[in-house]
Specification:
The complex is a heterodimer. By secondary structure, chain A is an all-beta fold. In chain A, 0% of the residues lie in helices and 48% in strands. Classes of the chains: A mainly beta, B mainly beta.
Chain lengths: 109, 112
Amino acid sequence: LAKTTQPISMDSYEGQEVNITCSHNNIATNDYITWYQQFPSQGPRFIIQGYKTKVTNEVASLFIPADRKSSTLSLPRVSLSDTAVYYCLVGDHGQNFVFGPGTRLSVLP
Amino acid sequence: DAGVIQSPRHEVTEMGQEVTLRCKPISGHDYLFWYRQTMMRGLELLIYFNNNVPIDDSGMPEDRFSAKMPNASFSTLKIQPSEPRDSAVYFCASALALHEQFFGPGTRLTVL
């Protein structure tokens, strides 16, 4: 399984764009990159998934460079309700469910 | 759909007692996962099923833990006997063809 490295925590202010980068140097050809969000006292929730280049949905964008050794989750104009832990997972569709410690994002007023 | 349903939401028991956690996955999903989350160890995959068959149980901590999926709409995670170190939040998740996982609300287990 490809090991991932993310910042342990990040702070931001309301209205700002937040970018969380995940490193996965040994990503394999068949691996996808998936991000989940977890609020306190809730289970993780799928945010976005990608394989290469850029993926955008109504919640976030995922940027993946050509070498795929890292990826960046971009949250536009965060609000207080975006305060959560964000997990980056890397694996093929048979293995993309190993969660690391994640990034604890705190959005300040 | 009501999403993944777990019961009970909270369980408090004494060391040595048997604990059974229950999960109803989203209808039509063919994968079911059991996770455990603690502050110290984070979110750990315990076991997952595909079409009711256990595929990987390497995350099950020891023989005290067992999981079953008798049909496509029900799974149980049993701990017997329970120990204080089993205290955690246990999540069940389901997925269709290993795309995004949908998590249940979790069961908070406290073993005294």
